[in-house]
Specification:
This protein is α/β, with parallel strands linked by helices and 297 residues long. It contains 11 helices and 12 strands. The chain has a single domain, classed as 3-Layer(aba) Sandwich (Rossmann fold). The longest helix has 16 residues.
């Protein structure tokens, strides 16, 4: 049986949590490779509305320590991407860390590549940013939050919405007006396969989202390479914190994003395939609660 390892660190310190969570995983994932890092910059709102700069900084430094040949940040925001990047100070930030920055909004039309997955709920497929398709290695970082506009939750699977164009195309209106929105989110993930996923759950939205919501302290950092496993553990943590009815009253693997992703073979298909690993007693106690919630659904 395929098993996905997810590391879990119970902490309020993002930099320390990122270092420890990644340290619990195999260290050869990015060595010698050119890495494209996809964050959550849907807006510039404070975490978990967007990726916290401290998390991003720690993640990049760990990738560099792990031997990445280069790191490039690539993103498309819901607001104007240039304005989001400026508001978060990412231009200066990237220069300080020696990483490249690609604003997907500024790509020419020929760099949005049409992708038509079989048996998709998209009418005629969707276009994907060429830098992501051609990246030697893709890594991502997501937040821990619910989604108040039909997605139900926005964790690692939903990061894929930022790989398709917003302006000049109708993909967002097509998705948001469809009864298959959650399935369509899962299908976007067929376009790429991340080598590493980091989830910052130090702060969480347990209702509302993605930009603003009901905030609780999750005090957790997760890492792994299986998007379904990361999202299943993330939903379990939302249940642990106490969330809205759409989270609390539905079994984790019956959530449409997760169920469709499992149908597509994007990762694990049951809680039994998820192995939570920790490195200290505090994190292990937290993980024990999460395991019980996963098993209960």
């Amino acid at each position: 049986m395929k098993q996905a390892v997810v590391s879990l660190v119970n902490t309020e310190d993002r930099a320390d949590g990122v270092s420890r969570a990644l340290g619990l995983l195999a260290q050869d994932r990015v060595k010698g490779k050119h890495v494209l890092l996809k964050p959550n910059f849907n807006t510039a709102d404070p975490a978990p509305g967007s990726t916290h700069n401290a998390t991003l900084r720690a993640y990049i430094r760990e990738l560099q320590r792990m031997g990445a040949a280069s790191v490039t940040i690539g993103e498309r925001s819901y607001a104007k991407t240039a304005e989001v990047l400026a508001a978060k100070g990412i231009d200066t930030f990237a220069a300080e860390l020696g990483v490249r920055l690609i604003n997907f909004d500024e790509l020419p039309p020929e760099d949005w590549v049409l992708f038509r997955p079989a048996d998709s709920h998209w009418k005629d497929g969707f276009r994907v940013a060429r830098p992501l398709l051609e990246a030697e290695t893709v890594v991502t970082t997501c937040c821990l939050k619910t989604h108040g506009h039909g997605g139900i939750f926005t964790l690692s699977l939903k990061l894929a919405v930022g790989i398709v164009p917003l302006r000049g195309y109708t993909y967002m209106s097509e998705m948001h007006s469809s009864p298959h929105q959650r399935r369509m989110i899962a299908e976007l993930n067929l376009a790429y396969n991340p080598a590493l996923i980091l989830l910052d759950g130090v702060d969480a939205f347990v209702d509302g989202g993605p930009d603003k919501g009901v905030r609780k302290a999750g005090n957790v950092i997760l890492a792994g390479d299986d998007r379904i496993a990361i999202d299943a553990v993330g939903v379990a943590i939302l249940k642990k914190l106490g969330s809205n009815r759409e989270i609390m009253e539905k079994k984790i693997f019956e959530q449409e994003q997760i169920a469709r992703a499992a149908e597509l073979g994007l990762g694990v298909a049951s809680p039994a395939q998820i192995k939570l690993v920790t490195g200290d007693s505090r994190s292990e106690a937290y993980a024990a609660e999460v395991r019980n919630i996963l098993q209960a659904g």
